[in-house]
Amino acid sequence: NNGDASTTPGTPRGGGDGGASAAPASTKRNGGGNGGGTAAAAWRAVWQLAGVVGVAPGPLTLRELFWLAEAARREAWQHTAWLSAMIANANRDPHKKPSPFQPDDFNPLVQRDKKASAVVVDEHTIGDLKALFTGQGQTSPEMESEL
Question: How many angstroms separate the first and last alpha carbons of the chain?
Fold first, then answer.
């Protein structure tokens, strides 16, 4: 026995909870009796995100782990986009496509031009926004077709 038998699935090895929570181990494993399994789902998310990032979740909050995982995902896509652009440019026919491919052409996480899909708020569209968010007022026929 190497001392791991006393640790629960929701507790890091070495004892303690790394500052993550003071909840009993049974609550961590089974979701307790007050959340319908939400505590178990939260702990599962904590450990999954920590695994994606490759850190022990100890002192980190779920939000911080999410931010770390999101940053890792963005970096991985940026890396993939650069490689894809290099391969595409190496095989590009300059007569068919004179401008080289850019990494952003291959990255689905890159913010595209938001102005193309932006809603201009003026005296004509303000009624649509009011109706949409408050349920009061009338929407224009153009807005009805988009809903």
Answer: 62
Pairwise CA distance, residues 144 & 147, whole Å: 5
* Alpha-carbon distance values, 44 to 7, 9, 39, 121 (Å): 16, 10, 9, 43
Radius of gyration of the chain (CA): 25
List pLDDT tens digits, range 10-44: 444 444 444 444 444 444 444 444 445 788 998 89
Q: What is the pLDDT of residues 75-106, one digit of tens each?
A: 999 999 999 999 999 999 999 999 999 999 99
Q: Which two tokens stand for residue 10?
A: 């929701």
65 by Cβ neighbours in 10 Å (0-12 / 13-18 / 19+) ranks as buried
